[in-house]
# Entry
Amino acid sequence: MPNKTFFWFFLPTGLAMILFIGLPIISTGIQSFYAQHDQIVKEVKKCDPFGCTVSIVVDNEETSKIREAKPLGKFNGFGTYTDRNHLAVDEIRKFWNETDSFGAFIDQVTNLPFYKALIFTLTYCLFVTPNVLLLGFVIALSLNAVARKIRGPLIFGTILPMIVTPLVGSLVLFWMIDSQGIIGANIQNLMNDPYLSLKSSKTLTWITIIIYGIWHHSPFAFVVFYAALQTVPQEPVEAAIIDGASRFQRIKHIVLPHIYPVVTFVALISLMDNFRVFEPIIGFSAEGSAQSLSWLIYDNLVNEEVILFGSAAATSIMTIVGIAILLAPVLIRTWKEFRIAR
Amino acid sequence: MRKILVTLLFLFFGTSAFADCNIKSGSINILANDFPALRTFVETSKQCKGNADFKVTHSSEHNKIAVPALTANPSEFSARIAANSSIVPLMNQDLIRPLDDLVKKYGKGIQDSQLITIDGKVMAVAFMANTQHLYYREDILKDMGIAVPKTYEEVVAASEKIRASGKMQHPYAAAYKAGWNLAEEFVNMFIGHGGEFFKSGSAEPNINNAKGVATLNMLKKLSELSNPDYLTHDSEAIKVEWESGNVALMTLWASRSGTLLDDEGDPNITKATKLAGPATVGGGNIPAATLWWDGFTLAKNRSDADADATFRALAHAASNKKMVADAADQAVWLVEGFVPGPKSIGVIEAVKMKAKPYPMLPQMGLMHGALGSEIVEFLQGKESAEQALKDVEAAYISKAKEQGFL
# Structure
């Protein structure tokens, strides 16, 4: 496509992206450097049906004056990024000096909200992404091998987990693993422990969410792989068969190299999606045991009666940076291949 | 449920009995939490809408909508039904208007005790009171020869006895869902121990002390007697547990008593469900519970005409003797003419025992939020009480700094 045609072709999308993705990200970035003005409070008498007390309220007259002068708030630089609820620079330095062993240090660090969330998010990515790729590929291969007649219904059945809304899917599983649900109660019987709860144990909650993640995301990998498999040329495969290559060898030396760009693509998308894991945490009411970076943003924005815009913005920016770091190796590799291909 | 329906139907068809409040114009749009008493209240105010536009949003997610919706100018809602805690963010952001003039003009039937005044200005009109208190199964306690517990120590002893007898695995229930609910249980228990959340006159946290540790230890003991999934159970979930007969002792909101004692569900359980005042803890004499009011506030960013219409409609309900008589078992109404019935025992006892109201402080929401996520690991046995409290304070301090309170 000539560059000029491409430009006009891309323009509407580009504009929409700048408007709906680019600008909000910039605005979020700016917001993350600001904190609220110092609250001016005053002591007043408060009376309610249960009696009167003297306590404090925010002095709105004074506050609104400051707010009008500087609507963005107080410039805080990287203050929000480095505070305890985010990167916790001071705390980590303190733990490093105070703890004797590395294990104790790690214990202390993983107790900080941001790192707690980061660890869960990374664990989730680490387990879900490869398994999704593997499972998706295996399913695609198997379906590619079954008779054409039953392929249609089978494909439909396989992509069901993706069609089901994430929240609904996780809620269904949530009720099944309830201590009185079909899975929860059976595990209790099996283990002979009436106090066993999939929902209250941190490890079990993590496992549940990871399994759910694999179940939910595999169909996407499957669909893409299945489409790619249709483009594998038959000649080399037949030649390999004549040469006596086993099925495994054919997949390893012919099919995989052929669909390799697609694998990279699915890995990229999958990593991005998994790094933003959120719905299952809400669906499983797993806030107590598993927090992800996206959940932290949500928590800052809605879970408290006071909305913490600065905190939420800082976490958002760090999530974007995190995704960029995760994707960097794959992107660099794709870029290099692209250059060679040219 | 049928009772509620009957009441509602009665209210609908009884409309003609009320004089129209003669509201000529304006538009009324109300944001409220979702439970039966509030629905009754809003329905009652609707009877008086006259020619005004009337819309209402009942949502249990009301807290998440309120501030953004009222910040807009003109704001989405003309009125917000708020409580002790949810009025604070509205006050902090200056989103609600003083009601003095309106009360003078249209608030004839409203009692002085219903007015929430802050710095001499009426900011809300309360119409019902709420608290969390004990529910017990009379049949089970009688069988086992256990007296109705008055303290949480007795609740623990009674629950242990019931568990030992093999009657129930998890005899105690309370809304311990991580987040707001769990934090609320901490607030109750901490106040029961005589704790103060902040150093006097400042926003410095003050929970990492002996009282905080005692609070956490009691919460842990109770959680061990609850369904192992307690960290995912909110008020609705424990209500279901109760109605399936899995629980003999429970701490739950007074406003939920109506749904527990209605005709739905196993009649034997309903018959044996009894209410008691809130329990005390650690030898204290004030109950480990907080008193709440629900009342209406009016949005600032809305025209005076809308505020006028909205106030008149809501004031009609907030002074409605017929409503409180018809819906006497839905809530403890603060409205004149309310005769407390058996379902009001919890709140009445709490007031008698001098329970404290939920602290109406500008920075309390941040503390509540920090509690809800940071004490979970202690309950799971993953860290010590001291560490958990230290975490709460640290999390709170960071947030309070960002918000400019420290």
User: Anything to note?
Assistant: The mean pLDDT of chain A is 90. Chain A has two domains: 3-75, 112-341.
